[in-house]
Design goal:
68 residues; Arc Repressor Mutant, subunit A; single chain; two-stranded antiparallel ribbon
Length: 68
């Protein structure tokens, strides 16, 4: 589905960028250009990031390391 109509960016492209290492809306804006024009797609993009990173955590992928 199209998330960013201004740039023609789909949820599949956003998820692929997250799989490639993007971990924030800022990362996605820098790599894909999402939420860089009108900004209406920012909330949905942020939800996709949270959902995708939450799925990675459920799979046992470390998202951070404990300080120690």
């Amino acid at each position: 589905m199209y998330v960013c109509l201004c740039k023609g960016i789909t949820d599949t492209q956003i998820r692929a960028a997250i799989d490639a290492g993007a971990s924030s809306l800022r990362d996605l804006r820098n790599t894909l250009g999402v939420a860089s024009q009108c900004g209406k797609c920012g909330v949905l993009t942020r939800d996709i990031v949270r959902d995708s990173l939450g799925g990675l955590a459920a799979q046992g992928s470390p998202m951070f390391y404990a300080a120690g």
